[in-house]
From TrEMBL:
This is NadR/Ttd14 AAA domain-containing protein. Residues 5-166 form the NadR/Ttd14 AAA domain. It comes from Hyphomonas adhaerens MHS-3. InterPro entries: NadR/Ttd14_AAA_dom, P-loop_NTPase.
Length: 186
């Protein structure tokens, strides 16, 4: 799906902030599945949390990312995803050894250009929904950085720059690849 733009990469690398900026510009955005799951599990007293039952958490993340992908098909114009099916599948493969990523990557595609938020210690913070440290975030980034090209994606590393600069970079890369996401195709 050429209009599905995946923003992936390091936890705490500024993905959610970038999505807020894109949403403020009028674009459709899909928030990160993991944060939504953590909030729901904490509110209900559930155990599908990364620090309690990582495998259950990742299965839920994968299911939610698939549901998001399907729901976004009803939207017109570009849709920007804060993580997606690929992220959840790569993490699940890392934890369980199951090769879901290869199968699901073919069924739930995004634009070939995927944007990676690199490790950025200056902005990384832990919080109630992100309890892991920078080392785990960097390892996660390395797995995604290796997996995405193997799954047929071209990765573009977001600059460590103010959010408006990041948004302009992302939109310019997409413009070079075809119609600009904020403009209708001719």
């Amino acid at each position: 799906m050429d209009n599905f733009i995946l923003i992936s990469g390091c936890s705490g690398g500024g993905k959610s902030t970038l999505l807020k900026a894109l949403k403020a510009r009028g674009h459709h955005v899909v928030e990160e599945p993991g944060r939504r799951i953590v909030e729901a599990e904490q509110a209900s007293g559930g155990n599908a949390l990364p620090w309690t039952d990582i495998e259950a958490f990742l299965h839920r993340a994968l299911d939610l990312a698939i549901a998001d992908h399907r729901a976004a098909r009803r939207l017109s114009g570009p849709v920007f995803f804060d993580r997606g099916v690929v992220d959840a599948a790569v993490a699940l493969r890392h934890v369980t050894g199951h090769p879901e990523a290869e199968t699901l990557a073919g069924d739930y595609r995004y634009n070939r250009a995927v944007f990676l938020a690199p490790p950025w210690p200056d902005i990384f913070t832990s919080d109630e929904a992100r309890r892991h440290g920078m080392d785990e975030a960097v390892a996660e980034y390395a797995r995604l950085e290796a997996a995405l090209p193997a799954l047929g994606y071209d990765t573009h590393v977001l600059p460590k720059a103010p959010v408006d600069t990041r948004a302009e970079y992302l939109l310019s890369v997409l413009a070079d690849a075809g119609p600009r996401p904020d403009e209708p195709a001719p």
